[in-house]
Amino acid sequence: MNEADLLHFEDFRAGQIFRLGRHTLTAEEIIAFASEFDPQPQHTDPEAAKHSMLGGLAASGWHLGALAMRMMVDGLFIRATSMGAPGVDEIPWRKPVLVGDRIRLDGEVLDTRLSSPPDRGFVRFRFTMTRHEERRNGTLVMMFGWAVMFRRRVAV
Amino acid sequence: MNEADLLHFEDFRAGQIFRLGRHTLTAEEIIAFASEFDPQPQHTDPEAAKHSMLGGLAASGWHLGALAMRMMVDGLFIRATSMGAPGVDEIPWRKPVLVGDRIRLDGEVLDTRLSSPPDRGFVRFRFTMTRHEERRNGTLVMMFGWAVMFRRRVAV
């Protein structure tokens, strides 16, 4: 993709909505992530998980954050001049994501502002992950704000 | 481990410090995580990463969060009555972690408070990840607050 075709700071404005991706979680990937990073029974042991507060084998909250990142990269950053972010806002986990749940990530631009280095600016998003079961509306899984740096299109 | 030997809500108090673990990051694990969850050149391509803002192949911020979780589980939750957490506070990434950097996670109890369900309470921690190079003091990588639920020892 040519540099000119990438989304730059100037191409974002408040209210824009990006549909970033969908994904259905399998037991294998929930267990694989948790075995490496969050080895607790509700995330690694299907039998024990049935008796946990989450009601069944459920993805680690950190796994959901990582999956959100992947959907942001594939759905947006790959065609934009993203320069990373200095951190991520508070992430509330509202509902668990169980095996077979389909998740979806959307992003809305809240505001844009120039940064001190004149070649870049911050775009602040609200990312929303929802969970979709058969024949039901989406349920909020997590929602968080995130200010991401993008290069400017115009040399200044 | 017997239930009685686990750390319960009543066993935590403000000011307690937990040394949670150390880990040295390899290029292979940085690339493996990023290939799955954060496929951007600064995390997946050692050559391209040299020219990035991070100065070399660096772990994804989400990878650092996941590694912190693993150190919390191994260093604390595995011997405690952790019941999970409803979310995680804002996570600022202050400095990158490059290949070969040794990271360390410490946790300090900020406060404890009972929850509405009488069988549990919240323990709020400040977790601090530092990066250690040869013969230098630790550099702050990230620091974040987190309120985690623990079962109470006494039936009430």
Provide structural commentary.
- The structure is a homodimer of 156-residue chains.
- Chain A has 156 residues and is an alpha+beta fold.
- Helices cover 22% and strands 33% of the residues of chain A.
- The first copy, chain A, is built from four helices and six strands, in the order βααααβββββ.
- Chain A has helices spanning 27-37, 41-44, 46-50, 61-75, and strands spanning 17-24, 87-88, 91-92, 102-114, 120-132, 139-151.
- The first copy, chain A, has a four-stranded antiparallel β-sheet.
- In chain A, a hairpin with a 6-residue loop joins strand 5 and strand 6.
- The longest helix of chain A has 15 residues, at 61-75.
- The first copy, chain A, is elongated.
- The two termini of chain A are 23 Å apart.
- The model of chain A has no long low-confidence stretch (mean pLDDT 93).
- The interface between A and B is medium-sized, with 33 and 34 residues.
- Strand 3 of chain A pairs antiparallel with strand 2 (87-88) of chain B.
Descriptors for this entry?
22% helix, 156 residues, alpha+beta, 4 helices
